[in-house]
Every structure is written in structure tokens, then in C-alpha cells.
Amino acid sequence: MVYVIVAILLIVVAVAIYGAVMRRKIYQEIDRYESWKIDVMNRPIAEQIAKVKELKMVGETEKKFESWRRDWDEIVTTDLPAVEEKLFDAEDYADKFRFGKAQEVVIDIQRSLEAVEAKLKRMLDDLNEVIESEEENRKDIVTVKEKYHGLKKDLIAKRPLYKRTAPFVEAELSNIESDLARFEEEREAGNVLKAREILGGVKERLDELAGIMGKIPKFYRDIHDRLPKQLDELENGVAEMAAEGYALSHLKIDERVKDMRKQLTACEDGLEKAAFDEVERVIADLNEQLEWLYNQLEKEVESRKQLREEVPIVRRDLEIVAEKVKEIARETELVKESYRIEPGDLRTQQDIDEAFEKLRKEFDEVSAVLSENKQAFSIIYEKIEDMRHHIERLRDNADEFKEFLTNLRKDELIAKETLQKLKERLFKARRKVQKSNLPGIPASYITLVDDAEEVLNEISIKLDVKPLEMHAIQQLLEDAQRKGAARLRENR
Questions:
Q1: How far is CA 231 from CA 87, 106, 234, 291, in A?
Q2: Is 457 within 8 Å of 419 (Cβ atoms)?
Q3: What are phi and psi of 245, to 5 degrees?
Q4: Distance between CA 182 and CA 186 in Å, rounded?
Q5: Are 264 and 227 in contact (CB under 8 A)?
Q6: Cα dihedral sign for 296, 302, 307, 310?
Q7: How far apart are CA 491 and CA 216, in angstroms?
Q8: Cα separation of 86 and 80, whole Å?
Q9: What is the model's pLDDT at position 35?
Q10: Coil/strand/helix, residue 90
Q11: Is the torsion defined by CA of 450, 454, 459, 465 positive or negative?
Q12: Is 299 exposed, middle or buried (0-12, 13-18, 19+ CB in 10 A)?
């Protein structure tokens, strides 16, 4: 019985503690939302709305003012009192331990206050936009009008500089003037945001027009003065260079200059049609073309200077190679009398002759063209440079072939020395057999000596035959040395 009473007491205590905790928690939520509600009520919304009264209370501004005031009145007289009533309900439910119901009311209070905050944010954002727009309009209209009048004065003072574009500039200024009048009308009508939109467009168009007006005089200077003078200077320079012997037909300068003058005429028409971006692009392209042509002319002058230095050097190198080629031809004929040269090696000597003849012919042709001024110096210089590389390669090939002929004679001497050494070794071997005169000497040893003698005799005969077949002789010597060494190892 005691346990039952204790259990009941524990349950009662637990329920009491739970009730106290939950009630405390809900009271805390109620206090937080009460503070939130008071904060909203104490905000200077009415004062902020009152600022709009400083503006012209007509049109759009008047409508917005009335809308904001209604929204704030609704918040103060309807939304916040409803929140206050819900706060009492939540507290009442908590006092009666209806915590679930109290929690539902608390959640509903939060939603209501969040809705009030959202409404206030929209209203204040709209309000601030109107106030800030009016302030910006008041500041910007001063600078915009100053810029507009400045451009208008500039057109009047410098009208001759704008030539055929003056009507376009006047029309743009007239349109801007109309927009400024519309801006004032909207502003007077209280349509602050619409006036702001118009003024923003005017600012952009003024900036764009100012940029165009800054470029137009330069465009005309380029079209009427700078570029025509540069084209005249180019034509005069080309005529002088032609008189000095420069061949420039490959550059087609006359055609290019004619086309560039047409483009200048088209640019003037483009200015009248207000195609300023296209005119700017064409002028930039003409500048690039002129720069390229002057670079090409400079290249011709530099090439002529280099040719004066390079041609004598190439002529001298060609003469040196000519002597090498003649020497190789003579040596080849002499070597052919004593040695057999493989067809592939003879073909190499013929290739050298043909390559030299081709280079000599090309040099003669280049020299003739150079003396007659029939071709651009830059093209001739490229040919001369190419010839220098070919001459160097031909000189290397000639040196290699000459070394090959020299090695043939060296191979003959080496073969004779090797043959003599083998004969001496054979002589010593035969004397050894004769001196020993022993019956136990292997027959294979005697056969070895006899075979070696036959091979050496064959080599001697081949060395006396003209022309020598050095490849066959070297092969026989290598076989003799290899077989002799192998058989000596077998008989030890």
C-alpha cells in the first residue's frame, strides 16, 4: 500500500514538474513574441511614410502614399491586435495545462508576425525606392542638363568639324531634349519611378553621344587628311624604290592603294549614315594594311643590303665546292683503275655532280634576275639562303665521299700488312713441322698449314688483280683469321 502511495506521489510530482516546465517554456515564447510585437509597433514607420509628403503628392506618389498608409494602419489596427489576442489565448491555454493547444496558438502567432514583417519589408522597400529615386533624380538632373548643354554648345562652336554628321548629332540632341521634357512632366505628375527610368535612359544616350562626338572629328581627320597623306607618301616611296631598281609587283601596291581609297570614300558615307562602329573598324583595318606594306618595303630594303653581302659569299662557297667536286671526279677515275667501286658508291659521286650542277645553274639564274631587277629582293634573298644550306650539305657529302676514296687505299695497305703477318706465321708453322720431323704430328695440323697457304696465295693473287675488289679481299682475310684461330684451338 505504501508503494502505491509513493508511486502516485511520484507521478503527481512528475506531472507537476512537467506542467511547470512546459508552462515556463510557453511563457518564454509568449514573452518573445510580445517583445517582437512591441518592437514592430515602436518602429518609426509613420515618420518614414511622412517623408513622402515632402514630394509632390500627385499621381503615382499619391497612390503609393495612400497604399502605404493603409497597409500600416491595417498592421496597427488589425494585424497586431490579432496577435495580442492570440498571445492571451496562448497564456490562458498554458494556465489550464492545455499545452498542445497553446503550442498551436504560439506557432500561429509566429506566422502572423512573419507575415507582418514581410508586408513591412515590401512597403519599406517600395517607399525607400521612391525616396531614393527622387533624391537621385534631383542630383542627376543637374549633371545631365550640364552635359546636354555642353554637347549642344560644342556642336554649335565646332560645327565644321562634324561636317555631314551634324544633322545626326542635332537629331540626337533634339530627342534627348524631348526626353528631358518628358522627365519633367513625369516628375511634376508625381511619377518618380517613371521619371527615374527616363532620366537613366537620357544619361546613357548622352554618354554614348559624347563618345561619338569625341570620335567624329578624328574620323574626318583620318579620312580626309592623315590616311590620304600616308597613301600619297606610300605611292611616292614605291615610285622612288622602283626607280632605284626595286621589283615590287608581287606586293600589288597599286591595287591595294586603289582599294584603300575606295574604303575611305565608303567611310565618309558611313559617317553620314551614323555607322560609326563600322567606320572605326575600317580605319583600324586600313592602319594595319599600311603598317604591313611599310614592313614589306622595309624588308625589301634590308634584303637588298643582305644580298650585297651574301651573294659574294655564296659565289665563293660555290667555287670552293666546284673544286671539291672536280677533285672527287679525278680521284674517282684514278681509284677505279686500281679498285672496284660498288655501283651504289659510284651513284653517290654522280649525285654530287648533279647536285652541284643544279646549284650552279640556280645561282646563275638568280644572278641574272638580280642584275636585271626582275624579282623582289626578299624573294631572291630567300633563294640565296636556301642555296647556302644546300651548298653546306653538298660540301659535307663531298668530304664524306673523298674520305671513302681515301679509305679504299688505306684498306689496301692494311690488307697487305695483314697478309704479310699471316705469311710469317705460316712460315714459322711450316718450319716447326720440318724441324720436329716427328711421326706423331697430327695430320690435321699439316692440313691446316696447307689450307692456310692456299688461302694466302689466293689473297695474294687478288691483290695483284686490277681493279682490286677490296670487299672480297677483306672477307677472305677475315675468314682466314677466324678459321685459323679456331683450328689452332682444336689442336692444342
A1: 90, 87, 5, 11
A2: no
A3: 100, 10
A4: 6
A5: yes
A6: negative
A7: 110
A8: 10
A9: 76
A10: helix
A11: positive
A12: middle
Place of cell 542638363: 145
**Torsions phi, psi for 189 (to 5 deg):** -80, 0
- In terms of C-beta density within 10 A (0-12 exposed, 13-18 middle, 19 or more buried), how is residue 97 classed? middle
Which range is most confident: 191-205, 217-231, 464-478? 217-231
Task: Determine if the pTM surpasses 0.90.
Answer: no
Give me the torsion for CA of 128, 130, 132, 136, rounded to 10°: 170
> Using CA atoms, how far apart are residues 90 and 297, in angstroms rounded to an integer?
96
Q: Per-domain residue ranges for the chain?
A: 2-151, 160-300, 303-410, 414-490
β-sheet bridge partners, residue 468: 339
Secondary structure E strands in 19-176: none
Please provide the average confidence, as pLDDT, over all residues in the chain: 77
Residue 342 DSSP code = P
Angle between helices 192-221 and 276-338 (to 10 degrees): 50
Q: What is the pLDDT of residue 15?
A: 47
Cβ burial of 193 (10 Å; 0-12, 13-18, 19+) is middle
Distance set, CA 8 to CA 3, 18, 219, 412 (Å)? 9, 15, 103, 132
pLDDT in tens, 209-253: 999 999 999 999 999 999 999 999 999 998 888 888 888 888 888
Q: What is the pLDDT of residues 374-410, one digit of tens each?
A: 788 888 888 888 888 988 898 888 888 888 777 766 6
Burial class (CB in 10 A: 0-12, 13-18, 19+), 121: exposed
Cell of 333: 677515275
Task: Give 102-138 pLDDT, tens digit per residue.
Answer: 777 777 777 877 887 788 788 777 777 777 777 888 8
- DSSP assignments along 450-472, one per residue: HHHHHHHHHHHHHHHSSSB-HHH
Burial degree of 142 (CB within 10 A; 0-12, 13-18, 19+): exposed
The residues near 249 (Cβ < 8 Å, ≥ 6 apart) are 376
Encode pLDDT of 305-319 as tens digits. Answer: 888 888 888 889 888
Q: How far apart are CA 379 and CA 251, in angstroms?
A: 12
Amino acid at 160: P
Rounded to whole angstroms, the Cα distance separating 105 from 91 reads 9
